Amino acid sequence: MQRFSGFSLLRRGLSGHLGWQPQWRRAEPKPAYDAVIVGGGGHGLGAAYYLAKEHRLKNVAVLEKSWIGGGNTGRNTTIIRSNYLRDESAALYDHALKLWESLSQVLNYNVMFSQRGVMMLAHTTHDAQVFKRHVHANRANGVDNEWLTPEEARAICPLLQTEGIRYPVLGAAFQRRGGTARHDAVAWGYARAADALGVDIIENCEVTGIRRNGAGAVEAVETTRGLIKAPKIGVSAAGHSSVILKMAGVRLPLESYPLQALVSEPVKPIFPCVVMSNTIHAYISQSDKGELVIGAGTDAYTSYTQRGALHIPSHALEAICELFPMFRRMRMLRNWGGIVDVSPDRSPIVGKTPVPGLYVNCGWGTGGFKATPGSAHLFAWTIARDEPHPINAPFTLERFREGRLIDEAAAAAVAH
Amino acid sequence: MLLIDCPYCGVRPELEFVYGGQAHIARPSNPAECSDEQWVEFLYWRDNSKGVHAERWRHTHGCGRFFNALRDTRSDDFLTTYRVGEPPPAAALERARGERR
Description:
The complex is a heterodimer. Chain A is 28% helix and 23% strand. Chain A is α/β, with parallel strands linked by helices. In chain A, strands 5-6-4-14-15-16-13-17 form an 8-stranded mixed sheet, sandwiched between helices. A 6-stranded mixed sheet of chain A has the order 8-2-1-12-19-18. Chain A is globular, with a radius of gyration of 21 Å. Helices cover 19% and strands 34% of the residues of chain B. In chain B, the strands form 2 sheets. Chain B has a 4-stranded antiparallel sheet with strand order 3-4-5-6, with helices on one face. A two-stranded antiparallel sheet of chain B has the order 1-2.
């Protein structure tokens, strides 16, 4: 693997940027692997990387039905935060946030992680009470979060309109360690690092079936590029998790919805942090390229179409224009949808399934990007040791039967 | 935006409707006698079909009534809509199977 450094960039820059090598091999599927990951997004590629790096499982493949990072990894609004209410969630998302803080160095790949702060606006007395409760719960769990008055919020984000609007801003919760990262770079960085450790990344390879042996354990996946044997299969397929797991006879408590986002034309740096609002439902930040990145909500109905109706982003834009009147003259460049797998308690499912050798990492719903390194790290642990890490131990599939839900519906960025 | 054919009012824009999730999930008549497996099946387990999906809609800003629909979740095309209490129309299901072949 070609290592990146300031020196190597300068040297290649002076020689016309010739001599860069491909970042990963175009691997052909082998007949058998020690473990196969289904889904080449950030979570799946990261899991393969940690399997090879920390669990010395080198004979690993990642199977991706189209191109890596082309699903929700490339379709989200790149917001990273860990200010979740429940103890289990705070531990899970803060585990991820801690890994984000060193990810560029660990992978030797700039994922452009920027801790510019995430501000969640309170517009009603109820909002203010809930967010203050979040602030206290987070602090008790060692997660930074603080309460801002409207004046303090405006001092951080001067564009914010706090008064004279339909739902005035009464205050905000602010997590300074939160921020954004470059979503594609996360997939590419993990792919490159995993490939360097011998992981095969196989694109255009759709899983069409899962074969089980007489004892019920998995033994192979059928794919559009042939049969691939593996005693361990980790499914990290986001919106398609139900489809893949059904091949092994496992039912999931998930529903897949389109979640839309959009970007504006690029402008000069104007927006210093991430701002999100549950109540009037919008979230916004500015990419390093200059586009305003705006998140809308999920469409009402389940779908696999990766598109949604225009009234959903229109609604988000109305909220943005109310909070930031100067953006009324901005032009929007593109909008798109991703298929998100929403669980009943809005918490993920990371762990074993009733089928021996089959593991699942799903249910991240509308907020999986922020968890990418943590989720990948814990999923690799679970696959390698056939038991969950203490952090993901509460996030089982059985919790729905046992009634031990981890209810984060209120903590999610959007009012579902 | 979807155009939805309410069996009572006719074709109306999606904004008039509220989605009601997977159709034909009957609440167990005696929940106290349910096993945990039966109860979790009713509460949480869903088909989440990629393909034809039977689902409930409510014409909230119209007649206010619930009805069912068959929709292909790969294209969002509605195959048909039908009234609560009726089984999914066999003809529409058959047509969908034919198209998939």
